[in-house]
Amino acid sequence: MSDTLNIAIAQINLHLGAIDKNLAKLRAARAEGARLGADLVVTPELSIAGYPPEDLVLKPAFVAACEAAAEELAAETADGGPGLIVGLPWRNGGKLHNAAFLLEGGRIAARRAKVELPNYGVFDEKRVFDAGSPSGPVPFRGFRLGLMICEDWWLPAVSETLAETGAEMLLSINGSPFEDGKQTRRVTLAVERVVETGLPYVFAAQVCGQDEVVFDGASFVLNADRSLAVQMPHFQEAITLTTWTRTETGLVCTPQTLAPEPERYALIYQAMMWGLRDYVNKNGFPGVVLGLSGGIDSAISAAVAADALGPERVRAVMLPSRYTSAHSLEDAAACARMLGIPYETIPISGATEAFEAALAPAFAGKAADITEENIQSRSRGLILMAISNKFGPMLLTTGNKSEMSVGYATLYGDMCGGYSVLKDIYKTTVFALSRWRNDNHPQGALTAPGPAMPERIITKPPSAELRDNQTDQDSLPPYEVLDAILEYLIEGERSAEEIVAEGFERETVLRVIKLLDRAEYKRRQAPPGVKITAKAFGRDRRYPLTNGFTNLIK
Fold it and tell me: Which one of the listed residues 25, 32, 45, 465 is annotated catalytic?
């Protein structure tokens, strides 16, 4: 019996529901593992189906197709090459499980069902899956593998059972979404499992965008002494061979050169790129179109799009009104030139004047107000959607989390679109990301190196330019104050009293609370966007539209 085991970790981009494409990925991963000398190739959670499948697994035909694919792959392992660990929905009697299969020697050698089903944040697996029962390790070529599926290792029970029943390592396949600061929490928690069990630990993850959630990979290995033996890169597909040796004290993974940990804004920017790229490409859009206003939100959105898709697949449109400043026209054009994206100008004055004329009899005797401002925004939305309809590119929405939180956005106007890279990005972070992008060329970017926008876009006061001399701060608290309060309210679920105790003015706190709650109906109609924070609007945060609790807060 050999005392050495070579395990290839396949950190790959899977396409939810595209079983044929996923099979091709898995076959390629196994072939690469064989070339590297692997005994076993480990792939991410639900690698045959894609993750998270949501209600797709309620379709019996889909589950049957996944199981047939597993049988097909299992038969291919009769060639004497590496074994393969895959994930798929598994119908076992009357129960449906999120499962991991070991394929080896031409057959399905072992099946394990996920025990701990997450039911928080973006996860609602208890709606569609049944929990499995803790099981012992999986035997593989003389080794005993403690096979787990994602949430199984976030809680101690499954790993403890595996340790007590003779596992020599903890081997976890994962669909772990990106979140700002999450890698530190992953490694810290993995250390806890290692300390509790005395076993080394493998975290194998996918890298892809799937609707709102993005998966960053960053697979890693901890030895039993808690040392980090392997660290794979964030936001890169990779297949890494790990070598394990049985010693007197247990299995030890040979240390490798660790992939560097990128800085915070580099990771956030990569998440935005991957989220947009996979959404556009996997849904078959030829590219994107967006309104380029000369402001910072549209500039950073354009930069992400050009970096992710290539400049030739991004169409920028300036839509000036009578309130559009000369510097906005100059800055938008300069931004397009710097990114190398196609750029055109379509004035909205004719459209807004036509709407105002049509409405004049109905509005007789009424002074102009926010209604006329919104007509401008909706005119822009109409034009951009018309371009999307006529030529096929998806309209990219450019609103940020601060604006969406307080309703500083126009339904059927600037909220029009199919996807947003800023939906979960606060305005203060928008400024920081823009500065970072001007100083850095992102990994994998399809643009030429260099700044993405004129410096003036970053330094000038933000404005919707829907009336004379307008700035955002006419309607909102300073963004540094607003974003801090919003983070307490949204991510922290803090009360008004608690936030005031942090040093904020009560009047401002109460105003922000009311704005946040009253804008829920707008957010329900907003396009999907990349999840970045611990609590993004949509899947993470679900509040009633009709809600009288705010009226009780004094």
Answer: 45
For the entire predicted model, the pTM comes to 0.95
* Residue 529, both tokens: 């966007």
150 assigned to active site: yes
On the question of a cis peptide bond just before residue 177, with omega within 30 degrees of 0, the verdict is: no
114 is catalytic: yes
The answer to whether residues 409 and 370 touch, using CB atoms and an 8 Å cutoff, is no
> CATH topology for 4-257?
Nitrilase/N-carbamoyl-D-aminoacid amidohydrolase (3.60.110)
**Reduced to 3 states, what is the DSSP secondary structure of residue 124?**
coil
In the predicted model, is pLDDT for residue 441 greater than 80? yes
Query: pLDDT digit string (tens) for 85-119?
Result: 999 999 999 999 999 999 999 999 999 999 999 98
Q: Residue 160, Cβ neighbours under 10 Å: how many?
A: 14
149 touches 172 (CB < 8 A): yes
Residue type, 38: A
Q: Name the residue with tokens 């009697």.
A: 93
Four-CA torsion 118, 131, 82, 218, nearest 10 degrees? 10
H helices, E strands: number in the chain = 17, 20
CB 404 within 8 A of CB 528: no
Q: Which residues of the chain does CATH 3.40.50.620 include? A: 265-468+521-534
Contacts 24+ apart (CB under 8 A), 27-35: 27/73, 27/76, 29/239, 30/76, 30/81, 30/82, 30/84, 32/8, 32/239, 33/8, 33/81, 33/82, 33/239, 33/241, 34/81, 34/82
Q: Which CATH superfamily is domain 265-468+521-534 in?
A: HUPs (3.40.50.620)
Compute the mean pLDDT over every residue in the chain, rounded to the nearest whole number.
Answer: 94
Q: Which of 25, 32, 150, 531 is catalytic?
A: 150
548 contacts: CB under 8 Å, gap ≥ 6: none
Residue of 25, 114, 282, 531 marked active site: 114
Residue with token string 């679900």: 542
